[in-house]
Amino acid sequence: MRPPILALKAVRLADGPKMLFDGVEIGLESRVRACLVGRNGAGKTTLMRVLAGQIEPDDGERVVTPGTRVAFVPQEPVIVGETVLDYATAGGAQDYEAEAMLDLFGIPTARSAQGLSGGEIRRVALARALAEDPDVLLLDEPTNHLDILAIETLEAELAKSKAAILIVSHDRAFLQRTTGRCFWLEHRKVRALDRDFSAFDDWVEKVLAGEAEESRRIDKQLEREEYWLQRGVTGRRARNEGRRRALLDLRKVSAERQKEVRGDMNIGLASSGLSGKRVVEVKDLAKRFGDRVLLKGFSTRILRGDRVAIVGPNGAGKTTLVKLLLGELAPDSGSVQLGANLDIAYIDQSRIALRPDMMLRDVLTPLGGDQVMVRGQPRHVNAYAKDFLFTESQIRQPVKSLSGGERNRLLLARALATPANLLVLDEPTNDLDMDTLDLLEDVLADYEGTLLLVSHDRDFIDRLATSTIALNGRGEVVETPGGWQDFLSQNPDFFKLKTPRSEPTRGPAPKAALPKAVKLSYKDQRRLQELDALLLALPVRIAGLEDQLAAPNLYSAKPDRFAALTRDLEAAQAELAAAEEEWLVREEQKETLEKGA
Predict the structure, then answer these.
(1) What is the reported pTM?
(2) What is the CATH number of domain 522-596?
């Protein structure tokens, strides 16, 4: 085997009293493609930061071949600089390389580095890393906030890259397409499987079965030694001191194993009762923002028990379609008719604010006290949090101490406490580990209500969806039975830009074309300036409203004030989404005119 160009040897690292890594060994050879898998909170992000050289281990060493260039895309990138091009070239990439990568991911190079959406931040960070042409590429949850088309673009670039690549991701389809080796972080150590991700689950089952057998063997041996101790070891202390010490060591091993046993999540999801058979009926729906048509002439009928996935590129109008279907947004034309007896739960990750200084228990009990109403029944907050694998010590810790996956579990815990017969999930898979995803899939598969799912996770969609609605951002909407692969096989060219075929010229020569505009009109330029100002001001306003809503006892003390702030927040968020979409349209128009000049 080739020597690794980046490796960790016997690395130990503690986070306060908690030992994260105890003798971790991991190595990446040139051009190897590997994934790092582990449960939420196991330390995957911390291990990636140790590999990137951002954290020094307590013991052991990080070994890097001299001259090796390492690029790291963290789970939550921070984009700095005047423009995205400034950021993309800050690591040493040439301008033309950074420009090519930004263009590949659909980001204008002159775009301000401020006010970027989650998907834009991710694409800019990936463009910078790929433009640097590193020898080692470390990617922590690279598909979060990316649409399916951007994920496929990333897959194609990784296939062409000459770098050694290590990826942390929950996206099974992505890992199966990009990796050929698996590292599993569990019980403070890393195990390796020199096969692609498709073999990972079966391998883990065999490892866990072997550990269970080893645990039974230790328990049996401990039982025998405990019996021996009770039968009079004191009378033979000198002769059997070695055996007594071995017994104490055995007890320690058993205790450590008990600490490391993973609890089982107990995610519950209850329907609030049967809705009408017809949940939503849509006829000839149309919606546009400014000059941009998001959808036109769309009709569908969603029945009780359907599981409908909504897919498309970022900015195509997926969230707008959800709001139209729920009656939260009025269409320009057409009709939306909601069924009877609907209880709607809308889990929108981008809307739910978790202040970093909030205690976990306060998130679950916003009205105070120590009880959570879980599907109509009171539960102690500690017991309910334990269902989602939170310990009693975590209950009293601030949100900022949680990993990305743990924060997502917390959001699910808060949202799933309320019964609903129409559940809307907007990007629910971000940061969740695979065990949690598998359990969530099982719960949703058994859910008696109706599901609307906005997601970029192709495997998640394929496992759950009974039909898929796709938007391409040009006003076209297609619905097909089944999941993502079913849609793709029936509509392979749906997302591709259609270019008219050239025909041979016949008849008289055409008249000279009128001169084309080479820049935006004065009115359009003024509007673009207004949008730039809005994109800077609205996030500040939204943050201020969220801070006010998070004030203790606001809901109980001033319910009218709480309701008014909530309406203002929703209006500001809708205005921001509309401004972002209009800005993208006008920037594309400006860029097209400048290229044609």
Answers:
(1) 0.69
(2) 1.10.287
